[in-house]
Amino acid sequence: MTSLDLENISTQLESESSRDRMLALAMLRNVEAETAAPLVRKVINDSNLQVRSMAVFAMGLKPDEETYDILVKLVETDPDYGIRADAAGALGYLEDPRAFEVLVRAFYEDTDWLVRFSAAVALGNLKDPRAHDVLVEALQCEEVVIQQAAIAAIGEIGDVSAVEDILNFAQSEDWLVRQRLAEALGHLPAPKTESALRFLERDAHPQVAQAARISLQRLHDHDR
After folding, report:
1. Residue 140 is inside which H or E element, if any?
2. Are residues 97 and 68 in contact, defined by beta-carbon separation less than 8 angstroms?
């Protein structure tokens, strides 16, 4: 992308039209992170919440040396729960181990379920084994989506020690929980994993059964 193109994007980010500003953010998709990051930051305090949300998400994909500190501040202090959730998710995309404590605090201390959901997902993206305790605790949350996030994160991390905990969801009433379980087990080779996947392979919901078949194949390929 030429310097003129970048100048046009920069100008468009200052447009009075929120649609123009969102289109400008979208155009940064193919721009290298170091170049895109300062432009993204132009709208992280935008008056339009949708633009802000899009910018915060983009920060996780187009980071520079300032990105981490800005996202941490947003997670910890922004008054809008949606922005806090977006920032937590973006921290996961950075895969920066420094974010571990920030995300754990967000999970335990934030009062909004969406932020706690995003923190659980992001902990999975960090792939930090220290997340075991918080994710096992997340399995006990009343919000089903947080249960789903915790199961998926345990799979992302490859936390075999949590297999017994997630197997409790093999007969969950929510098929998405069962699907997340089937997907996660494909990354968790353990004594009970294959039998659990054989059980899920017979699930009445086709997406659960398909996920179980894929995970069984993944385990068999891993053993070769």
Report:
1. none
2. no
